[in-house]
Structure formats: C-alpha cells, structure tokens
Amino acid sequence: MRAVRSGFIPLLVGNTPLVTIRLRLRRRSAALRLKLESFNPCGSTKDRTAVSLYESVASQLDPIAGLIESTSGNLGVALASLALVNEMPFTAVVDPRAPTASLHEMRRLGARLVRVDEEDARGGYLLSRLRLVADMLDELPGLCWTNQYGNLANPAAHELGTAPELAKQVPNDSVVLVAVSTGGTLAGVRRYARTATGWDVRGVDVYGSYAVGYAPGKRLLPGIGSSQQTRFAAAMDGPNERVNTEQSVAACLWLQEHCGIGVGASSGALVATALRLIQRDGLDEVVCVCPDGPRNYISTVYSSRWRHDHGIGSVAIPATCEEVQWEAP
Predict the structure, then answer these.
(1) Residues 75-132: pLDDT tens digits?
(2) Cβ–Cβ contacts within 10 Å for residue 172, how many?
(3) Which of 44, 56, 191, 264 is the most buried (most CB within 10 A)?
(4) What is the Cα–Cα distance from 206 to 219, expressed in whole angstroms?
(5) Distance between CA atoms of 46 and 224, rounded to whole angstroms?
(6) What is the Cα 18 distance to its own chain's centre?
(7) What's the CATH number for 8-42+152-315?
C-alpha cells in the first residue's frame, strides 16, 4: 500500500476563513457571509476533495501508470500537487474552458495534460472528457481513476471537513448556498446538515447545467454546472436555485470593486443568488461556501474584452457594502 505522504497539502487543507459583509440592499440591511475556500494551499475547495479522493485509491496505485482525472481546473491542480508529493504520475483530462492559470500550474507540478476539443451533446465538454478517460483506462489497465463524479470520498470530504468547520463559524439556522458541479460539496454539506444543524442548504446552479436535472444547454463559466446529473443522491434531495452568467459575473465585479474581495465564477453565482434571496425573501443573512478565488478568471470574468467578446452586458447590483469583517478560522 502506498500511503499519502505527510506533504504540505494534507497538513494545510481546511481552516479557511469567514468574511462577513454588512450591506444595504434597497433599504434592507443584511449580512453576507463568505467562507473563502481560496485560502486552501492550492487555492480552492477541491484541495479537500483531492486529499479524500487520493486517500481512497492510494492502495490501488501503480507507480508507473499513476492516476487520471477529468478536471475543469481546480481539482487537477490539487491532484497534481498530491501526485508530486507522492512521486506518482498524474494525467489530467481537460478542455478548452479550463483556465489558463490552472493549465500552467498543472504543467509546473509535472502533470500530463490531455485535451479534448469536441463539445458533448449537452453544451459542455464533460461527457467528451469522460469518454477519453474510459479509453485511456482501457489502453493502460494499471491506470487508476479517482472518479470525482462517483467516488463517495468526494462528498465525504465535505461532510467530515467543510461542513463541521463551517458549523463553528455560522449560526445553526443559517441559509447556506453551495455551488453545484459534481454535486460532491453539496451532497456532503446536506448530509452533515441533516443530523447536526438546522441549516437550510440550497444548491446553486447555472442555466444550461444538467447537474440537478434542469434542461441542458450551452454554458460559458467553468467550475459550476455539469453536462450530466450528479451521481450523489444527497445533492438532489433539497431546494436548488439557478442564476445566469451575467448575474454571476456582475456579482464577482461588485465584490471586487466595492468590498475588496476577489472570488471565482461559481462564487459569483452564489453571491448573486444570495442577493436575490435577501431581496426576494427578506432574509437577514445568507452564507456562501465560495469554492475559489479570482486567479483563474483574470482573463475571463475580470477581463472587459472577454466580457465584450461573449456578449456579457453590465448588470447593476443595487447593493452598498457598509462594512467588511474578517473572522479567524
């Protein structure tokens, strides 16, 4: 058995901070609480997932063939770091939407990148990536797939790590928003909440995503949404909200300009949804588990040229940031 070495990643994952934004939205005062997973060592909540996935397959790993995973960016970086620490080959199957910064980082960490360029029938690249993974597993029997889409180690990372940590930071009756991709984070947080808190956990997806059963279609933002339904049942068992690309991007820009906080596209989707719930449902507080920071989105979400080229117009956010409070993990 090859155990995970005590490298810097497992030791430093977790204990991410919470920031509270006191805001005014159309004469309403409310609190927006953001758990910033960008403070993990590789920059995202996927660090937690990567450690859990790697540990679940460690006994199966062939030091010659190594491991493989389909990734839109963040998980690939985290797995590449773990593979490097453990002297294990890692192959990342990526697509044209993967952030350039993530691709550079995976290469720097020694990962082998294989790219698919054919969109699947549901407006994304995931199904094409998974077909390539299957082909490569057939060609090299010793290759091990961590399978973030079906491996129960994915939601376990968040049921046993992310959610209990968050429970120490926010009230027991909070409305908690979690972005949907594989559904692992959402499933893990929901499973924890059922037995340990009174949280109202809501998934947040984008239009065009099939992750929780809505009609599939063209999508633009990486890191949120999916071309296939989540295979984690707990992710489907609860209320979900949807938001469009323009609203997600506008929320990212608003946070950066008015609050001095940079987040990624999926976090922008959470914040846009939170602002809608505050206004629509009269909520006084909403918690967002923000998956990553702005680094991977400098040339997309935060680029005026990219927004113009993709027809993403300006969306006004009628909110005023009155105070930003950082809380220790």
Answers:
(1) 999 999 999 999 999 999 999 989 999 999 999 999 999 999 988 888 778 999 999 9
(2) 10
(3) 264
(4) 8
(5) 13
(6) 17
(7) 3.40.50.1100
Q: What is the mean pLDDT of the chain?
A: 92
- Rounded to 10 deg, the angle between the 74-85 and 46-57 helix axes is 50
Rounded Cα–Cα distance for residues 109 and 230 (Å): 29
CATH architecture of 46-145: 3-Layer(aba) Sandwich (3.40)
User: What secondary structure, in 3-state letters, does 184-251 show?
Assistant: HHHHHHHHHHHHHCCCEEEEEEECECCCCCCCECCCCCCCCCCCCCCCCHHHHCCCEEEECHHHHHHH
How much is the pTM?
0.93
Q: Locate 123 and state its tokens.
A: 């407006």
pLDDT the model gives residue 11: 66
Residue 81 near residue 61 (C-beta atoms within 8 A): no
Q: Are 266 and 293 in contact, with CB atoms under 8 Å apart?
A: no
Domain ranges of the chain: 8-42+152-315, 46-145
Token reading at 154: 């994915």
Instruction: Specify whether the CB–CB gap between 296 and 73 falls below 8 A.
Output: yes
Radius of gyration of the chain (CA): 19
Taking alpha carbons only, the member of 129, 133, 91, 135 closest to residue 110 is 91
> Which SS3 state, helix, strand or coil, does residue 298 take?
coil
Under 8 Å between Cβ of 167 and 193: no
Cα–Cα distance between 239 and 181 in angstroms, integer? 15
Whole-angstrom distance, CA of residue 247 vs CA of residue 313: 10
Topology alike, domains 8-42+152-315 and 46-145: yes
Q: What are 210-248's pLDDT values in tens digits? A: 888 888 888 888 888 888 889 998 888 899 999 999 999
- What is the spatial distance between Cα 178 and Cα 266, in angstroms, rounded to a whole number? 9
